[in-house]
């Protein structure tokens, strides 16, 4: 397989390249070279997709598949997909479940309404930009476009900081705020499992739209935090606190306490932990156990000195230690 990865040096893109190289594929990456070194075994081309002339280096080259991880103005997807439509087989675009228009009902599948957008949009929020990217890929490739609406993505090389924050907090030890309920179901996908599914689907010539995330309850807040405490050496003691006092303290779910969205909170209308993923599972998606994702992420963090990279286009996540201490003190 001749694969072009538009991106390929960050989180999911890197996982795609590593997996494809291990499969023995002929891999080319195209990016600005700003987010780390290239993966050994892949050809690296440089260019800025927001400057259309940068794409000229791709003209005349043929690929069996393209995987595009772009997050930003949809016109970057529009221009690259238009150029590659006659040069490539499948065009897989890594989108997001943020494209769905709230309120997203529990159990919503790929037919749920999507935010309004345009392939030529220059602004808009994250969900609108991803929706525009989908339209751009579909306009150029039609049924050959594979749209992967990923959910929460965790695992080694995560550059948003969600699981790294929990691991760092657990490693610090002491009484550790654990936002309840303990059995709260969560949905996520390990970036490596997303990459493997993208590659296998591209090799099979699969097209269409898929929610690519684990089933609801594949893990819980309890199993995630238990794994984080265990893998970091057990120095932290989980103190489970009901949502009400946490929210009363001004804590913002998902951001201050990553992953967590308590029952009844307005963020539930985004459907982040309740998607129907039967279509992707039937198409071969195979999420690994949460313990493996947590352990591998911790091993990666230790290998780089404990500080995860932070994407410039995303705000830092995590709870102020003083706020945590005050909540724990009030909880008794």
Describe this structure in words.
With 332 residues, the chain is an alpha/beta fold. It folds into two domains: 176 residues, NAD(P)-binding Rossmann-like Domain (Rossmann fold, 3-Layer(aba) Sandwich); 127 residues, no CATH class. Helices cover 33% and strands 20% of the residues. It is built from ten helices and 15 strands. A seven-stranded parallel beta sheet has the order 3-2-1-4-5-6-11, sandwiched between helices. A two-stranded parallel sheet has the order 7-10. Strands 8-13 form a two-stranded parallel ribbon. Helix 2 links the parallel strand 4 and strand 5. Helix 1 crosses helix 5, helix 2 runs parallel beside helix 3 and helix 4 crosses helix 6. The longest helix has 16 residues. It is globular. The protein starts with a strand and ends with a helix. The mean pLDDT is 95.
Entry summary:
The chain has 332 residues and is of the alpha/beta class. The protein has helices at 12-22, 75-84, 126-141, 162-172, 191-203, 221-231, 243-248, 278-282, 290-303, 321-331, and strands at 2-6, 26-31, 43-46, 63-68, 88-96, 145-150, 153-154, 174-179, 185-186, 189-190, 208-212, 219-220, 236-241, 253-254, 257-258.
Key descriptive features of the protein:
two-stranded parallel sheet, seven-stranded parallel β-sheet, 332 residues, alpha/beta, globular
Rounded Rg: 20 Å
Regarding CATH, which class of the largest domain?
Alpha Beta
Into how many domains do the coordinates divide? 2
Tell me the β content: 15-25%
Strand order of the largest sheet: 3-2-1-4-5-6-11
Q: How far is the N terminus from the C terminus? A: 59 Å
Question: What is the CATH architecture descriptor of the largest domain?
Answer: 3-Layer(aba) Sandwich
State mean pLDDT (0 to 100 scale): 95
Helix count, per DSSP? 10
Work out the helicity level.
Answer: 25-40%
Number of strands: 15
**Could you say which structural class the secondary elements and strand pairing correspond to?**
alpha/beta
Task: Estimate the global geometry from the Cα principal axes.
Answer: globular
């Amino acid at each position: 397989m001749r694969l072009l990865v538009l991106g390929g040096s960050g989180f999911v893109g890197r996982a795609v390249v590593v997996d494809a190289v291990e499969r023995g594929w002929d891999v080319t990456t195209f990016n600005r070279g700003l987010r780390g070194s290239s993966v050994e075994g892949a050809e690296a081309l440089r260019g800025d997709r927001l400057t259309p002339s940068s794409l000229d280096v791709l003209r005349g080259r043929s690929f069996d598949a393209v995987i595009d991880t772009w997050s930003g103005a949809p016109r970057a997807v529009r221009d690259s997909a238009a150029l590659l439509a006659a040069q490539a087989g499948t065009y897989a675009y890594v989108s997001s479940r943020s494209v769905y228009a709230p309120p997203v009902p529990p159990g919503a599948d790929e037919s749920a309404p999507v935010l309004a957008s345009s392939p030529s949009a220059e602004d808009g929020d994250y969900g609108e930009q991803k929706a525009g990217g989908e339209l751009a890929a579909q306009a150029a490739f039609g049924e050959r476009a594979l749209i992967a609406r990923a959910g929460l993505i965790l695992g080694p090389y995560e550059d948003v900081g969600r699981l790294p924050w929990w691991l760092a907090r657990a490693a610090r030890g002491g009484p550790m705020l654990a936002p309840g309920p303990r059995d709260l179901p969560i949905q996520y996908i390990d970036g490596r499992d997303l990459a493997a599914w993208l590659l296998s689907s591209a090799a099979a010539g699969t097209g269409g739209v898929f929610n690519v995330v684990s089933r609801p309850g594949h893990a819980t807040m309890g199993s995630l935090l238990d794994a984080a405490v265990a893998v970091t050496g057990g120095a932290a003691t989980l103190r489970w606190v009901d949502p009400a006092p946490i929210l009363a303290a001004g804590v913002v779910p998902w951001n201050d306490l990553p992953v967590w969205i308590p029952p009844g909170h307005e963020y539930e209308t985004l459907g982040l932990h309740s998607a129907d993923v039967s279509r992707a599972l039937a198409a071969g998606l195979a999420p690994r156990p949460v313990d493996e994702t947590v352990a591998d992420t911790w091993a990666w963090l230790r290998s780089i000195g404990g500080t995860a990279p932070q994407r410039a286009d995303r705000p830092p996540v995590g709870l102020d230690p003083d706020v945590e201490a005050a909540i724990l003190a009030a909880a008794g």
